[in-house]
Description:
- By secondary structure, the protein is an alpha+beta fold.
- The chain is 30% helix and 14% strand.
- It has eight helices and six strands, in the order αααββααβαββαβα.
Amino acid sequence: MAASVPTVAAEGLVVPPQRCPIMHQGAKRTSVPPAECPMHQSKAAECPMHQSKAAECPMHQSAAASSITSSSSSSPSAPAHQERAYEFVECPMKAANRDKGMTDINPDNMMPPPNQQPSPGQPFSLSVSRQESAIPRAGCGQNWVYPSEQMFWNAMLKKGWRWKEGDLNQKDMNDIIRIHNHNNDAAWQEILRWEALHKKECPCGPSLVRFGGKAKELTPRARLRHWMGYELPFDRHDWIVDRCGSEVRYVIDYYDAGALDHRHQNNTVLDVRPALESLGAVWDRMRVAWWRWTH
Length: 295
């Protein structure tokens, strides 16, 4: 999500069991599986990650019931880069080798797989390992998974960037991923502070639906700050959050902390707030502004 280079999204995968662990020796083969086999019992009526929250959160009950009808292992509307993401968290090298020979379209979900293969002429090798975030992904019990160094490199090439001698090295890519993941975690923590204002109406907590970068589209607030003599943000993201059935858009401006205060080199300052597109968002920002002013 946020660094001075493009952002890549990623997503998780649940691998189905390969076979029933119980051996039915001597049992007559029929079209109906034995009742005692746990692998043939009906699936839970809700996402396993949300079972403990189902009683108090009606959103998880309805979402889980609809997910049973899906034959895919992930949400149909999920971004492509989250497909098979957890394979690269558990065993990155095995998952990367499995990509070799794959077509551009995955027949299971008609989505392209994450690009974990080295690009032509790549000057050095990059890690394909991916880190799971603490940001819950809407519609599933899994969290968002951050891109690997190789995915980030390939995404930059796709955006038109080309490597030149002295531009980046292996350590630089590792630092980029570390900063990227740290900024995203920090942005989510700021969103949770805003969402705490709505804990009564959404006791199960928010989840992230989708996000997108809009670095070339300045927000009115960033433009006003620039007119006042402050630096422009180096990036902007819009995050769409699911608040128990209601989608809320958050705007995030990313500032270089070194440009604001030389004591904080290599750090990022985040300006996170709900977009002013509803009376509720206006009221939230008025309340927070008052608290900041008086405390």
